[in-house]
Amino acid sequence: MLLHIIDVALLIVYAVIITTATYIIAAHRKYFHERFRTGVVSAFMLAMLFFLAAYDVKMVVAIWIRASEVFGFRTHEVQFLQLLSWLIATSGTAVGLLLLAYQTKTKKYDLYLFLRRKMRKDDVQ
Q1: Which end of the chain is more exposed for a tag (fewer CB within 10 A), N or C?
Q2: How far is residue 25's CA from residue 72's CA, in Å, rounded to a whole number?
């Protein structure tokens, strides 16, 4: 009984994490759209976006793993796919954290990436 309560609590916590991470990404959508449109993006914000997106995927995989155990549909094939997905998502979060840690260590928060873009009608030459 206690294990079932813990499983349900974990599913709820994972859902809250996914909701908040997705909200943060969505809340910054306008910033990224504007930055990509102008062709200049903050490297720190881009690393943050990458980390949050990877973390979101990781939490979706965590719910998938927990739900498959709770509801009993975890076969060997499903377990293989879950572990592979977990590896990919965890690697993504690790890369995101490494990028953020590097920028924090070097105190290079003001690095900007200049993206090449196609010329549009409203561009001034």
Answers
A1: C
A2: 32
For the stretch 81-121, pLDDT in tens is 999 999 999 999 999 999 999 999 998 878 888 887 666 66
Name residue 86's amino acid: W
Q: Which two tokens stand for residue 23?
A: 């909200």
Tens digits of residue pLDDT in 52-71: 999 999 999 999 999 998 88
> Which tokens is 14 given?
């994972």
Please state the domain extents for the chain: 2-111
Tell me how far apart the alpha carbons of residues 45 and 51 are, in angstroms, rounded to a whole number: 10
pTM check: above 0.85:
no
| C-alpha to C-alpha distance for 84 and 33, rounded to whole angstroms | 31
The pLDDT tens digits for 112-124 are 888 876 666 665 5
Residue 25 makes CB contacts below 8 A (sequence gap 6+) with 49, 52, 53, 56
Burial label for 107, CB within 10 Å (0-12, 13-18, 19+), is exposed
